[in-house]
Amino acid sequence: QLASYENAAQEVISHTGNLQQLLQTTTEVSTEFDGVLKSLRRIAPLPMKLKNLLFNEQKEGELLRLFKKASTDDSYDLSIEPCSSFPNPVYKEKGFSLEFTLKDRGKTEFYLPGTANYRIFLLTLENNPEVICSNISGNKVLRGTAISKQEKSGIIRFPNIVVNEVSSHYPGEGFYFVVANL
Fold first, then answer.
1. Residues 3-27: pLDDT tens digits?
2. CA distance 120 to 97
3. Element containing residue 99 per DSSP (H, E)
4. pTM for this one?
5. For residues 156 and 80, is the Cβ–Cβ distance under 8 A?
6. How many Å apart are CA 133 and CA 59, to the nearest integer?
7. Least C-beta-crowded within 10 Å: which of 71, 146, 150, 177?
8. Count of CB atoms within 10 A of residue 140's CB?
9. In the β-sheet with 142-144, what is the strand arrangement from edge to edge?
10. HSE of 16, CA atoms in CB hemisphere, 13 A
């Protein structure tokens, strides 16, 4: 039985070496990939749709479709409403916080159990708005807390939102500020 334990220990030791080699190789590849991305960014900013891999073209299309529908259709059972007024003005690189709540058609607060993510988006003020993910320098336009969950108290809290862009660089010299559950 002692020999069986020794064999098992040898097996674990042999796999530990393989795992360490795999970890080292993965780290090296990741570092090299980061270097390639940095080089590409120096050549030209990455297109907006490639900047945020968590927000793909399908979700962007869905957001734009829902945004257009919400501005003309009031048949939704729930709405996301601010708990306080929006700060005015919003300064570039200066953080601010916002809180929202879900309300039903009767304007009663509504708690939606589960793990739904609520996310902040900026859209251009054009007739056909576009989602703004990065500025002309290739930097993220929104930093800080751009994704949140509804707390048990019913509040959807974004404690630190930082806008890294000047609205005058875009048509209409402003943005639509959208909170959506995608």
1. 777 777 777 777 777 777 877 887 7
2. 12
3. strand 96-104
4. 0.61
5. yes
6. 13
7. 71
8. 16
9. 78-82, 96-104, 155-163, 142-144
10. 6
